[in-house]
Fold:
Amino acid sequence: MIDLHSHILPGIDDGAKTLEDAVALAMHSHECGVTHMVCTPHIHQGVFDNNITSISTAFNQLLIALKEQNIPLKLAFSCEVRVTPDILTWVASNSLPFLGEWEGKKVLLLELPHSHIPPGIENLVRWLLKNNIQPVIPHPERNRDIIADYNRILFLKRIGCLFQVTAGAFIGRFNEQIQSLAEQLLAEDLVSYVASDMHSINRRPNDMQACKEAITQLSNTDTANKLVFDVPSVITQNLVWQ
Ligand SMILES: [Fe+2]
Structure:
């Protein structure tokens, strides 16, 4: 499986705290059947002020540790960027590490606040698309506006967003309402792919394998493979794995 969303890089967001935690998460993911993982730390102004320098420094530390310990998990890095007007500047200065490519566009993991969909989001999404960037919205199943009104995700779909549902949502990691919304998104073919959004072994482990089994039950093997492997594989085909 190819996991396109993880907070495994040590000490730069609310995921792995130490290099030791990060190595344990890598081993755990490998044991769960993940072969390739994109590290996607938060870039969230005033909360996690990451940039390519902080991300690549932590990434290189983890790479060295995995090589020393012979953990055969292939890694690449990108980010999960919280909606802010500064995205326009960051795109212009080419300072956001993209997730890969989809249908000729660079892919950006664009995080909405959990509490709501920001007014004017359509302007940002249209601007990104016009600049050859495909926004993927992570965990729409946990956004309170979408939970309250299903039409809100149809609006985001209409303006051109893709959606990544969290693996754990399908196995009850959050709550029943979030699980049934994830299942509805799957049934209505709104899930572009699934990813772990792994943060820690105890609180938010890698649920990709359990999710794959759940989707196989809910739908079928082909759909499960498409969401944990085929689509992530296309998105990352030009990324350099290390
Ligand atoms: Fe995340």
User: Anything to note?
Assistant: Residues 18 and 68 are 16 Å apart (CA to CA).
